[in-house]
Amino acid sequence: MDPSYQKVTPILPYTNIILNNTGKFYRKIGDEVIQENNLCVLILCGGQGTRLGSADPKGCYVLPDINHSIFSIHMQQISSLGKIYSKEILLLVMVSEFTDHKTEEYFKVNQYFGLKRENIVFFKQESCICKDFNENPYFIDEKNFARSPNGNGGLFKAMKDNDIFSILRKRNIEFVNVISVDNVLARVLDPIMIGCYKHHKFDVLSKSVDRLQNENVGIFVMKDQKIIIKEYSEVNVDGLKDGETQTTTTSTSNSSSANSSITEITSESSFSSTFGENPFQANICNHIFSVNFMENISNKTLPIHRAVKKIPYFEGGKIIKPKEPNGFKDEYFIFDCFVFSNNCGVMNVPRLLEFSPLKNGYDKTTDNPRTCVDDISKRSRLYMEKSGAKIVNCRIFVLPKTSVFGENLERFQGKTFKKDEVLK
Questions:
Q1: Between these two residues, 5 and 41, which has the higher pLDDT value?
Q2: Beta bridge partners of 127
Q3: Are 368 and 182 in contact (CB under 8 A)?
Q4: Angle at the Cα of 62 (from 325 to 309), degrees rounded to 5?
Q5: Alpha carbon separation from 394 to 133, 186, 406, 420 (Å, rounded)
Q6: In the prediction, which pLDDT does 13 show?
Q7: With pLDDT > 70 as the criterion, what percentage of the chain qualifies?
Q8: Cα 4 vs. chain centroid, distance in angstroms?
Q9: CATH class for domain 3-363?
Q10: Which of 18, 63, 71, 378 has its CA at a distance of 20 to 30 angstroms from the CA of residue 358?
């Protein structure tokens, strides 16, 4: 462990994280920005879903019970927001050599989920050669090296190499909302987030949730007056008592989510953040970047992170699948760009509404297809009960094509649901 990270300072309220009753203020600004600007969402889809036990890209994974893929859920949201905002939204999809053909074919077969083809741009990130612990490259067949995507931090160079910045300039797009494909609750083009980003003139604004005890996520910390993200394994956080830090900081107790004051459309007023009980904020890979900052980063060199992995390799005329880690995969992380910004912010949001990642198969108890479906159901229940419906011993699923923020559900007022149902 790097000793410089053993003592860390959690991000502070108002200085770096947007807290308290400011949601309505930011929403007003965000609504104005949305009407005055062209909009863009970028989905990171280059990673391999090997832990899911699927050979297909993660976005193609069909969730049980609701029978919709992750791509379908995200596309429904973008389509619905286009109607709500009366805007055509540009969608950028970053793929890799391992996901490109299947992803594009999946969109084509599904008729681009009702979106206009000219508003969807696929582009490919680079790959890195996989190596053993002695720095020797692995082969995947007799002639070709074993390779893996170069991480979500490969985004910026991929945008440059694929001339994405020219596309953004031609469309007069000033900021991009970047999300990871595997978060089934990800909210894009959130007017509160956009308003916060615009008001503070951030280079990048990120959403966070309160980190759970022992949760395997990156956390936001301050280092040399800069916001950075460190992996949970690099910072001693679980030994801390609630609210305690290893450095002197401003107290963050009794603070609530920026979204908690919103009553129109959204349901955040029913939930307040527990920020202060756990001083560390978890990264959920939902960022708004200014296009100028992204283009600047595309000319920078980000550090390489080495992940110890089980790497299949070619030997003796066949593919060997090791049972134990046998080498490295090199990756760049998107958040390593934060150090190049003098104006970087973090906005705390309720986990129940915005974070449920699909990381694992059914063999794990967390972040698996079942937990994702359960979390969609919990958020849906909140929306429906706020609209006046009653849910009795069953699960209701509100997908984004029906409601994005919990809006337009008044027709269910007074209705009682007693069996599982995906609302139309």
A1: 41
A2: 149
A3: no
A4: 10
A5: 51, 24, 19, 5
A6: 36
A7: 84
A8: 27
A9: alpha beta
A10: 18
Spatial distance between the Cα atoms of 88 and 293, rounded to a whole number of angstroms? 23
Quick one: average pLDDT of 179-191? 97
Q: Is 176 exposed, middle or buried (0-12, 13-18, 19+ CB in 10 A)?
A: buried
Position with higher pLDDT, 131 vs 273: 131
Residues in contact with 286: Cβ distance below 8 Å, sequence separation at least 6, in sequence order: 177, 178, 179, 180, 183, 186, 187, 188, 193, 206, 207, 354
Q: What's the pLDDT band for 236 if we cut at 50, 70, 90? A: low
- Report the DSSP beta bridge partners of residue 282: 209, 219
Residues 6+ positions from 226 with CB-CB distance below 8 Å: 338, 339, 341, 344
- pLDDT grade for 2, boundaries at 50, 70 and 90: very low
What pLDDT is stored for residue 123 in this prediction? 99
Ranges of each domain in the chain: 3-363
Instruction: Give the integer Cα–Cα distance in Å for 93 and 146.
Output: 24
Is residue 247 a contact partner of residue 11, using CB atoms and an 8 Å limit? no
What secondary structure does DSSP assign to 362-384, as a single string? TTSSSSSHHHHHHHHHHHHHHHH
Does 8 have pLDDT greater than 70?
no
Whole-number pLDDT of residue 22: 72
Predicted TM-score (pTM) of the model is 0.88
What sign does the dihedral 89-153-216-326 (CA atoms) show? positive
For β-strands 175-180 and 40-44, DSSP reports them as parallel
Q: Compare 71 and 11 and report the one with higher pLDDT.
A: 71
- The rounded distance, in Å, linking the Cα atoms of 215 and 232 is 8
The CA-based angle 85-87-92, given to 5 degrees, is: 115
Tokens representing residue 182 in the block: 């595997």
Average pLDDT over residues 397-408: 96
User: Checking DSSP bridges between strand 204-210 and strand 281-290, what pairing results, if any?
Assistant: antiparallel
Q: What is the pLDDT of residues 341-373, one digit of tens each?
A: 989 999 988 999 999 999 999 999 999 999 999
Q: How many residues does the chain have?
A: 424
Residue with tokens 């009682």: 416
